[in-house]
């Protein structure tokens, strides 16, 4: 079946540094990728939607200059947390939507395994 | 504004019995609903979905019921198995599939006891 990978799976960084998280669709072309954030014991909150080759659409309250999203190809989207602070510590999950033959020829959305970010 | 709500943070059920997880929503523009299962430090795994034109969808041990007038949906797992123990999220979207923006509930932790 479809696989969406994220790298790294966990990262610890110092306050003020920037961290890049990669999201890849491994066996299908993802026309759209989504970035979610989940704080402990809370729901997954959508941060932004990115379409290949165009600017990301950010949800209300998400700072686009702090969370830089690049969707350079149909298989890769990156999220860069700039000048990270402890309050940015969270579990970041991406998902990818696209046409997948093995799913019966339907568009579907698959989630990556997530990246745990800890900012000291 | 929490548009999708799961008011029960946890549920404990005996193996073999039925598990019923509930979800309420406020936005009448939602027309596609999904249930996901999630383990700690992993991404959600799709379980089952339902379109707003239906009131029931069944897949093996999992059945989702939708009551549009009450803006309520539920996931039934019968029979429950210990491997079903996880956090269950309901999600909603505007559109006919799960390829668009999803709004998630807070999740319900299900524990199935042997």
Description:
The complex is a heterodimer of chains A (120) and B (114). Chain A is built from no helices and 11 strands. The mean pLDDT of chain A is 88. Chain A starts with a strand and ends with a strand. In chain A, 38% of the residues are buried. Chain A has strands at residues 4-7, 10-13, 19-25, 30-38, 44-51, 57-58, 67-73, 76-81, 90-100, 106-111, 115-119. Chain A has 120 residues and is an all-beta fold. Chain B is mostly beta strands. Helices cover 0% and strands 53% of the residues of chain B. Chain B has no helices and 11 strands. In chain B, strands 2, 4, 5, 9, 10 and 11 form a 6-stranded mixed β-sheet that branches. In chain B, a hairpin with a 2-residue loop joins strand 6 and strand 7. Classes of the chains: A mainly beta (120), B mainly beta (114). The A-B interface holds A 4, 6, 32, 34, 36, 41-46, 49, 91, 93, 95, 97-98, 106-114, 116 and B 4, 9, 36, 41-46, 89, 97-107.
Core attributes:
heterodimer; A: mainly beta; seven-stranded mixed beta sheet; four-stranded antiparallel beta sheet; B: 114 residues; six-stranded mixed beta sheet; five-stranded antiparallel beta sheet; globular
Distance between the termini of chain A: 37 Å
The assembly state of the depicted protein chains is heterodimer
Rough outline of chain A:
globular
Helix-strand makeup class of chain A? mainly beta
How many strands appear in the DSSP assignment of chain A? 11
Q: How many separate helices of chain A?
A: 0
Mean pLDDT of chain B: 93
Number of strands of chain B: 11
Q: What general form of chain B does the structure show?
A: globular
């Amino acid at each position: 079946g479809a696989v969406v990978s994220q790298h790294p799976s966990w990262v610890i960084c110092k306050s003020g540094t920037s961290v890049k998280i990669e999201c890849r669709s491994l066996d299908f072309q993802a026309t759209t990728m989504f970035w979610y954030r989940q704080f402990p014991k809370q729901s997954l909150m959508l941060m932004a939607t990115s379409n290949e080759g165009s600017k990301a659409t950010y949800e209300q309250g998400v700072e686009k200059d702090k969370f830089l999203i690049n969707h350079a190809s149909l298989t890769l989207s990156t999220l860069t947390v700039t000048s990270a602070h402890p309050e940015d510590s969270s579990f970041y999950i991406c998902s990818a939507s696209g046409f997948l033959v093995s799913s019966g020829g339907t568009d579907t959305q698959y989630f990556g395994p997530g990246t745990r970010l800890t900012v000291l | 504004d929490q548009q999708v709500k799961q008011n029960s943070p946890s549920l404990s059920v005996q193996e073999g019995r039925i598990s019923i997880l509930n979800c309420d929503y406020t936005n009448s523009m939602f027309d596609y609903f999904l249930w996901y299962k999630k383990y700690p430090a992993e991404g959600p795994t799709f379980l089952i979905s339902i379109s707003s034109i239906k009131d029931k969808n069944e897949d093996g041990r999992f059945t989702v019921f939708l009551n549009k007038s009450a803006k309520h949906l539920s996931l039934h797992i019968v029979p429950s198995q210990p491997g079903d123990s996880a956090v269950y999220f309901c999600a909603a979207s505007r559109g006919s599939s799960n390829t668009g923006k999803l709004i998630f509930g807070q999740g319900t932790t299900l524990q199935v006891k042997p």
